[in-house]
Design a protein that fits this description.
The complex is a heterodimer. Chain A is α/β, with parallel strands linked by helices. Chain A contains eleven helices and eight strands. Chain A has two domains: 199 residues, Cytidine Deaminase, domain 2; 102 residues. The longest helix of chain A has 56 residues. By secondary structure, chain B is of the alpha/beta class. Classes of the chains: A alpha/beta, B alpha/beta. Chain B: InterPro entries: eIF3f (IPR027531), EIF3F/CSN6-like_C (IPR024969), JAMM/MPN+_dom (IPR000555), MPN (IPR037518).
């Protein structure tokens, strides 16, 4: 009569949805890092993209291989070519037993200014087909300073839902408690290597105690990088102030419209009193055909959020480089004193 | 070796055989190992194409590679040529400057089947380079060797092809950039942040300076024999510090520090501005 508590009917099991474990870590292979670095460096300063292949295992997203995309000219026929190239590459890679699963894409960036609307759109496109996708950003200009500038990003879920409704007004954002920090989520990166390649690297490593990486890190001349960062920062602040002005304009228009509505309403009311005194029908207190009642659209806040993200990124970069420079300056001072 | 009176065993002279050398980028090694790990179960070795370019001084620069499926039995080798061409076209769409420069195979030494494959590649490009990567570590250490083939002919008759080893230069600079610690171990939990990286580099520098100190002390005390070239290097290094009076140096360092402090201050102000702007933008409207 009473079913055993462990056994559930098939229907019940089929009905319970699998809860997706949240993505906690992106595991990249050393091979993928080398490939991305090579591709981005060859074409810098042009920005390039490529596809990531790998496996989605629980809370870890493994990226095991990647291939670059050719640079697209602004040509209509190239659309089909691009898709063909992708299919061809994936087919060929499958024949040599490479994981055939797209898990995202990578792109190079210049000075960390990658938060654009295109990025969000690409994310949404990928998200339709793949449940979990990630975007890896590599900055070759920062890597010339000895910092390995890899970042794994994904859009936060709440932001994605909001984007689908395409409604970025103030109330909606307050409702969801969404601010500019919530758009992108950065996921920590782990690097893994197969045992064979780690054996090779261990055997092939030169015995020098100092590597190129150290040379890059201990360089004193970082001023050009700081100057460019500051320039970009200034440009972004200009953009941000333009967005602010749009808001001010909107608010001014809104308040002006409000006051116009009030005066019109009062006039109507006065008219109505007069008409009541004269015994006529009172006129309606609303008039939708009057242009002053037309609701003004509120400007979308998406752009300002993206710009804010960029600015904070630049600030972080400047902080990082300045911190490094302090250490270098102290080092130089100590060397001289000796 | 028996030779006739008139026919002489001769090596076909290749103009660049004396100066040909090859440079390999670490990405190629990674690719080859990855393909070897993923090979189908019945295959003993992996064969693939090498892409790169020939530098103006004759060195072959090997930059990229891809595996080509093949079937190998005791005396026959079948290579999937269509696949090879398709991959080549795809790769050239991204980077048209990379052309075929040779081929690779895993496993030590050159076998009979390799000569046939080498012929095939010789039809695609003149003087292909054959790279062998010993994944079995038969010599107890990783061995990567490069060969070119030289034709042995007796008069007009082709006898054999001899694989001559050419010097190979492993350009590990890109690997060094990432840092060998990340590439050596099987799992790295976190990419080092800027300051951690600085710390590591400075510790290495400190260790080097300690070593130099110890060496100089030993030489002064007569424990180690002095080496003139090392002494010259050390004096060069010490002399390369610019001669600035302490006051000038202090000024220089302080100026730089103030510049950086200014930038830090600017970025903190910007951050504050951002948070204020955000509060204003999403504040509730009081109508």
């Amino acid at each position: 009569m009473a079913a055993a508590p462990i056994a559930r009917s098939f229907l019940q099991v089929a009905a319970t949805e699998e809860v997706a474990t949240p993505l906690r870590v992106v595991q990249i292979e050393g091979l993928v890092m080398l490939k991305i670095i090579k591709h981005c460096k060859e074409f810098s300063p042009a920005l390039v993209t490529g596809q990531l292949l790998g496996l989605d295992v629980g809370s870890v997203l493994e990226v095991t291989n990647c291939f670059p995309f050719p640079i697209r000219e602004e040509d209509e026929e190239v659309e089909a070519d691009g898709a063909n190239y992708q299919l061809e590459m994936m087919r060929c890679l499958r024949e040599v037993n490479v994981d055939n699963n797209t898990v995202g894409w990578y792109q190079s960036t210049l000075m960390g200014s990658f938060q654009t609307v295109e990025l969000i759109e690409t994310f949404m496109n990928y998200q339709e087909n793949i449940r979990r996708c990630v975007c890896i950003i590599y900055d070759p200009s920062r890597s010339s300073q000895g910092v390995l500038a890899f970042k794994a990003l994904k859009l936060s879920d709440s932001f994605m839902e909001l984007y689908k409704t395409n409604n970025f007004t103030g109330e909606k954002l307050r409702e969801k408690n969404l601010s500019w920090v919530d758009i992108f989520e950065e996921i920590p990166i782990k690097v893994s290597n197969s045992a064979l390649i780690s054996a090779f690297m261990t055997g092939l490593e030169d015995d020098t105690p100092v590597t190129q990486c150290d040379y890059d890190r201990l360089q004193l001349s970082t001023n050009p990088f700081l100057e460019r960062s500051a320039e970009f920062l200034i440009e972004c602040m200009d953009d941000l102030s333009m967005e602010q002005q749009k808001f001010q304009f909107y608010h001014r228009n809104l308040s002006r419209q409000q006051s116009q509505q009030q005066t019109w309403l009062q006039k109507r009311r006065a008219e109505n009193m007069a008409r009541k005194a004269a015994g006529d029908e009172p006129l309606p207190e609303e008039d939708p055909s009057n242009p002053i009642f037309k609701p003004i659209p509120e400007p979308s806040r998406l752009d300002s959020f993206l710009i804010t993200n960029q600015i904070s990124n630049f600030c972080n970069q400047i902080n990082g480089v300045a911190g490094q420079n302090f250490s270098r300056l102290y080092l130089m001072k100590a060397l001289h004193e000796n | 070796m028996a030779t006739g009176e008139q026919t002489v065993l001769q090596f076909a002279p290749t103009a660049s055989s004396t100066t040909l050398s090859a440079k390999v980028h670490p990405l190629v090694v990674f690719n080859i190992c990855d393909c070897y790990v993923r090979r189908p179960d019945q295959a003993e070795r992996v064969i693939g194409t090498l892409l790169g370019s020939v530098l103006p001084d004759g060195t072959v620069d090997i930059r990229n590679s891809y595996a080509v499926p093949h079937n190998e039995s005791s005396d026959q080798v079948a290579l999937d040529i269509d696949y090879h061409h398709n991959m080549l076209l795809s790769h050239q769409k991204v980077n048209p400057k990379e052309v075929i420069v040779g081929w690779y195979s895993t496993g030590l030494g050159v076998s009979g089947g390799s000569a046939l494959i080498h012929d095939f590649y010789a039809r695609e490009v003149s003087n292909p380079v054959h790279l062998t990567v010993d994944t079995g570590f038969r010599m107890g250490a990783p061995a990567i060797k490069a060969y070119v083939s030289v034709n042995l002919s007796l008069g007009d008759i082709q006898l054999a092809a001899q694989f001559q080893e050419i010097p190979l230069d492993l350009r590990m600079i890109e690997a060094e950039r990432i840092g060998f610690d990340i590439l050596k171990t099987t799992m790295v939990d976190k990419l080092p942040s800027d300051l951690e990286g600085m710390e590591a580099s400075m510790q290495r520098l400190l260790a080097l300076i300690d070593d130099v100190y110890k060496y100089v002390d030993d030489v002064v005390q007569g424990v180690t024999a002095p080496d003139n070239s090392v002494g010259r290097f050390i004096s060069e290094v010490v002399a390369s510090l610019p001669k600035l009076s302490p006051a000038v140096l202090d000024n220089l360092v302080n100026d730089n520090m103030q510049d950086h402090l200014l930038l830090l201050y600017l970025s903190s102000i910007t951050r504050t501005q951002l948070s204020i702007a955000e509060k204003l933008n999403t504040a509730a409207q009081i109508i």
